[in-house]
Amino acid sequence: MANHDGVNEVFLALADPTRREVIRSLGRGPASVGELAQPFAITLPSFLKHIRALEESGLIRTSKSGRVRTCTLDHDRLAVVGDWLDEQRRLWDERTDRLESLVTDLEETA
Questions:
Q1: Dihedral over Cα of 12, 69, 77, 30: its sign
Q2: Which CATH architecture describes the domain 7-109?
Q3: How far apart are CA 67 and CA 44, in angstroms?
Q4: 32 vs 26: CA distance, rounded Å
Q5: What pLDDT is recorded for position 1?
Q6: Which residues of 39-50 are buried (b: 16+ CB within 10 A; e: fewer)?
Q7: According to the model, what pLDDT value does residue 4 have?
Q8: 48, 33 in Cβ contact below 8 A?
Q9: Which of 9, 28, 47, 78 is the most exposed place for a label (fewest CB within 10 A)?
Q10: Could you give the C-alpha distances from 91 to 49, 71, 74, 94, 97, in angstroms and in order?
């Protein structure tokens, strides 16, 4: 299966509910790892694995200032998901239209 512009990595990263919640939080603006981890009942090392997965997928970028690591959402990378879904929607709309046309033609000839 072809990997269209890394869409597989993005979907894999978004498959986890913790990561989706992190993305939702970062949609409001940059946040430190500590701020992002606060709502979750998991250890910081476990949470950092989620941050690493999101960073490796390209969905977030992190920067360190002193002891604080700040995460920022990469909106362009997240748009890969929307682009892929738009493409699939267009393909399925075309297929549905062709099927509807075929059914109409069959009904008219019957």
A1: positive
A2: Orthogonal Bundle (1.10)
A3: 14
A4: 10
A5: 47
A6: eeeeeeeebeeb
A7: 61
A8: yes
A9: 28
A10: 36, 35, 27, 5, 10
β-partners of residue 88 are: none
Angle at 59 between CA 52 and CA 78, to 5 degrees: 160
**Between β-strands 60-65 and 68-73, what pairing exists: parallel, antiparallel or unpaired?**
antiparallel
Q: Where are the chain's structural domains? A: 7-109
The per-residue pLDDT for 38 is 96
- Is residue 71 classed as helix, strand or coil in its secondary structure? strand
CA 73 vs. chain centroid, Å, equals 11
Whole-prediction pTM: 0.78
For 20, residues 6+ apart whose C-beta sits below 8 A from its C-beta are: 14
Residue type at 39 in one-letter notation:
P
- Directed axis angle between helix 7-14 and helix 44-57, to 10°? 160
